[in-house]
Specification:
It is built from 2 helices and 7 strands. By secondary structure, the chain is α+β, with helices and mostly antiparallel strands. The strands form 2 sheets. The protein has a 5-stranded mixed beta sheet, covered by helices on one side. Strands 4-7 form a two-stranded antiparallel ribbon. Strand 1 and strand 2 form a beta hairpin. It is globular. It starts with a strand and ends with a strand. The model has no long low-confidence stretch (mean pLDDT 96).
Length: 121
């Protein structure tokens, strides 16, 4: 099982293949935002990688990163588009706490959505 280190929250074992956004909520207990429900549309689920960032990203993540001006920040990634397949260390930068939102967003599905087309960053 991959190890997920979340700065300020602790270290957690995560089932291999689980979406990072869901692991942050389920295993780490983070009030991680995911306003669009995990479809790579809003970027509210972004995290900052300290180590263990995936070598690939989905085409959907790549596209929204360009639109939202995140292309020049390689350590900032969308947790809804990442599968826990290795040890990772992240900083949370987008939480429900401190916002006026009523909730973090609809729970993302277990599989990456839209269906993942993997590419290089």
């Amino acid at each position: 099982m991959p190890k997920l280190i979340v700065d300020g929250f602790g270290t957690f074992e995560v089932p291999a293949g689980k979406r990072l956004v869901n692991a942050l909520v389920d295993e780490a207990g983070v009030d991680q935002l995911h306003a669009c429900g995990g479809f790579a549309k809003c970027t509210t689920c972004r995290v900052q990688f300290v180590s263990g960032a995936p070598d690939e990203m989905t085409a959907a993540e790549k596209e929204i990163r360009m639109i939202k001006g995140l292309a020049d920040a390689p350590d900032i990634r969308l947790s809804c588009q990442i599968v826990c397949d290795r040890d990772m260390r992240v900083k949370i930068i987008s939480r429900l706490t401190g916002t006026a939102r009523k909730d973090a967003g609809a729970r993302p599905a277990d599989a990456v959505e839209p269906p993942a087309v993997w590419t290089k960053p």
